[in-house]
Amino acid sequence: MRTLPKVSVITTNYNDAANLKRIIAQVVRQDYENLEYIIVDGGSVDGSRELIQRAEERLPGRVRWISEPDGGIYDALNKGIRLATGDIIGCCFDRYADEGVIRRMVDAMELEGTDGVHGDLCYMDGDRIIRKWHQGQGTIRNGWMPGHPTLYLRREVYEQFGMYKTDYRIAADYEFMVRILYRQQVRLSYLPEILIYMSHGGTSTSGIKAYLESLKEGHRALKENEVPFAWITDLCRILRVLAQFVKR
Hints:
With 248 residues, the chain is an alpha/beta fold. 40% of the residues lie in helices and 23% in strands. The protein has eight helices and nine strands. A hairpin with a 2-residue loop joins strand 6 and strand 7. Helix 6 (172-181) runs parallel beside helix 7. The termini are far apart.
């Protein structure tokens, strides 16, 4: 009987106990057996620590956590990656489509021998779909990128390429994906199904001002990673996003 790769799922939190409770429930209901849950709390004072302690009871021996001030979400994610002991590392900030999502993601990676996996996601406003993230496979140069909440990677990717740059406020996830994918050194499996239902209104989707700042930081990420004619890639990204609204 083969040994299942260990998967570390990271959740970051700061004074958002209600949402943390929902996220913990999502992770607990996953049917993947070799699962480690990492919770990085920013020093909350709203009852979040008590929720984390109850999560330890529901996942005995499989929860690791810290609660201390951090420098924002990307600093917290980096802390989580350092804490993780899994072979595969991903995040959970929202709702899995069903209890078998992680199992299917691991199966795809193992079957194809890839460095990571991604799939589709829906941006939600309550129970209403705002847009569907469906990009399939592609290249960074042509404006493609995986949906970050669906991106699970082998530990070796972080060891080779490093973690998130904390001098980015909104687009450190995009910079990281450009860094690992532009030169096609990291191979990803793609699951053509909705894996995550994500709440609309995150750091880069909370309004036009935030979206424009995200594009600005995204352009910087392309330049820093020496993507030629970065403005063409910017335009392709914008058109891909607009197409998601048209198709929904």
